[in-house]
Specification:
- The protein has one domain.
- The protein contains six helices and seven strands, in the order αααβββααββββα.
- It has 213 residues and is of the alpha+beta class.
- It is globular.
- A hairpin with a 2-residue loop joins β5 and β6.
- The relative contact order is 0.15.
Length: 213
Amino acid sequence: MHIINRHLSIIKVAVLLLIVSSCTVIDSVEEIGSEEFTLWNKIITINFFQSIVGNGEFTANLEDEKVLYIFVYEPPASAPDYLLSAAVEVRSAGTLLNRAEHEHVVATTPLNERAGRFPLVGARAQTTTPFFGPGGSSFGLLSTTIDELYDIKVNVVQSGAEGDLPTLDALDISARIHQAYQERDLFTSLRGFQLHSSVVTGPATVDTSKSLI
């Protein structure tokens, strides 16, 4: 019975995530391919989620010019019906969070609401409209990487939470992803600079054939 309930919970997650994703208008400007998939697979992993919340099932897929990661938490035996999952979608910058539209929304949002709706993550970020349905509730965050190359959408789905159970937070997940991305990007830049410097300057040499006098 527990296994059946577990499969039903995963199906609920998939359906809810499809509904939430369909609410996002996509206007793709670039194609995300295998190179980008390889990059993000080194950042968003099962260990990434397990370090936050614990064991669970993890999938990674490249489809329709996007990279999609889904993590479904494995609930304890004491709460088999507890549903907790996170979906991370990566697309080219401007496809999930248009800069001009974002700036317009910020400008028209009351000052006392901006901190909550537009957290300081990446180049820009804004919360999505919460979703409530029979399969649970969903809270999300859209953001753009600091180098303006990628948009990231994080959705957290939760249902049947009772007692002291682990939770996931879309802002926390987004912040961790951006930090890991920026640290990797910095390492790559520094590595490229070091290689370039060694090629330009080359090793130091001394001509011993000439007298120093």
